[in-house]
């Protein structure tokens, strides 16, 4: 068995011809740029590329296969120079059983399954070319279609205040909108960790995923996991999620929830910390309060601790959050040490300070052990490291 760095939520911003896919995604976030950046700069071994249902993206993938830049194995696996690519799609469910929109992730074992899903999806969305489209089918109907094609179904960033399962979609339980036996895991999102999520007893039997939800190349692998697998294939990924045999999630690496955009409850105008019971912000008088993930989980709490054997959740501070580490110094680090994974996990303090100022090297090392002082984020504004 080998261990692999895995990020399963990376959006496509534009097609090869420049047409928008994820409108809020960066223009440089094309399929070809994603796979190169994820492998060569981030050091990932498996990625989930969301928005592959878009017809122009399917054409680009086919072209890369035809020209030998990608290899497709008999099991449907797509490979780019040793890195596995899992095609996926993010969709918005808002049927009669939802009280608000819910984003979900659907993954497939290869290009052919993704093509079939795209053709089916074209009859259930308004614009098949765009990401995160509202699907005009129930959540359970979508689950059954994904399973019919041998896919994986995972609710996305489940606690964020907008367009998520617990943030806006259900009152108490995911069984209100989905069939529990057809869910393969839950993606936590940037503002929650394992100990927070395990306060909901109904999640105890499912694996947790920590993914970047990247809308730009730089955001890739801001959250990820290490998965033990025989090889980086879709079949092995499924086994790891289902707990079948030796494949398994070894560790989840995620941002400290306090760095997330929606961790604490804040005023929507001045971002000051706010009380849920308050009608107006005590600092500026604004009437709109955005409920944080921490408070929402407290409302839903049914358990004090999670099941035994959960993989550790390791707080990881992305390089972009390190004070003073701008693009030039980051490029210098990558030039010396190869990939971001190596810098975050392996390079010694002594080696780091030979390349960047000692203070920055110290920040990177402290981030590994969770020794940094943080200011919590909320209301759509990221937290930050206290200098």
From TrEMBL:
Q: Which domain of life is it from?
A: Bacteria
Signal peptide limits: none
The record's section on InterPro entries has: Pol/histidinol_Pase-like, RuvA_2-like
Q: Which PANTHER family match?
A: PHOSPHOHYDROLASE, PHP FAMILY, PHOSPHOTRANSFERASE
Query: Which protein is depicted?
Result: TIGR00375 family protein
């Amino acid at each position: 068995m080998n261990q692999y760095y895995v990020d399963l939520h990376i959006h496509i911003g534009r097609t090869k011809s420049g047409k928008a896919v994820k409108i809020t995604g960066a223009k440089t976030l094309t399929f070809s740029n994603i796979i190169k950046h994820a492998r060569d700069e981030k050091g990932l071994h498996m990625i989930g590329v969301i928005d592959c249902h878009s017809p122009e993206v399917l054409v680009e993938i086919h072209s890369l296969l035809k020209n030998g830049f990608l290899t497709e194995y008999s099991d449907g696996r797509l490979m780019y120079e040793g890195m596995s690519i899992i095609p996926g799609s993010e969709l918005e469910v808002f049927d009669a059983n939802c009280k608000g929109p819910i984003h979900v992730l659907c993954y497939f074992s290869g290009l052919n399954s993704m093509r079939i899903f795209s053709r089916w999806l074209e009859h259930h969305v308004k614009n098949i070319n765009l990401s995160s489209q509202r699907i005009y089918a129930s959540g359970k109907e979508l689950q059954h279609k994904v399973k019919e094609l041998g896919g994986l179904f995972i609710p996305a960033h489940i606690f964020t205040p907008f367009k998520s399962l617990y943030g806006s979609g259900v009152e108490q339980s995911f069984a209100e909108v989905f069939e529990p036996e057809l869910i393969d895991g839950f993606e936590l999102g940037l503002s929650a960790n394992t100990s927070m999520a395990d306060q909901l007893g109904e999640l105890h039997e499912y694996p947790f995923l920590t993914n970047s939800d990247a809308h730009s190349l730089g955001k890739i692998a801001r959250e990820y996991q290490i998965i033990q697998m025989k090889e980086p294939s879709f079949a092995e990924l499924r086994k790891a999620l289902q707990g079948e045999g030796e494949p398994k999630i070894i560790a989840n690496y995620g941002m400290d929830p306090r760095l997330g955009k929606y961790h604490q409850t804040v005023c929507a105008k001045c971002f000051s910390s706010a009380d849920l019971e308050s009608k107006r912000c005590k600092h500026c008088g604004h009437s709109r309060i955005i409920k944080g993930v921490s408070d929402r989980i407290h409302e839903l709490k049914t358990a004090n601790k999670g099941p035994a054997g959960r993989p550790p959740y390791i707080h990881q501070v992305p390089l972009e959050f390190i004070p003073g580490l701008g693009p030039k110094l980051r490029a210098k680090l990558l030039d010396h040490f190869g990939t971001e994974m190596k810098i975050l996990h392996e390079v010694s303090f002594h080696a780091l300070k030979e390349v960047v100022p000692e203070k920055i090297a110290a920040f990177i090392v402290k981030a590994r052990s969770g020794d940094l002082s943080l200011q919590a984020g909320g209301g759509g504004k990221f937290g930050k490291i206290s200098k």
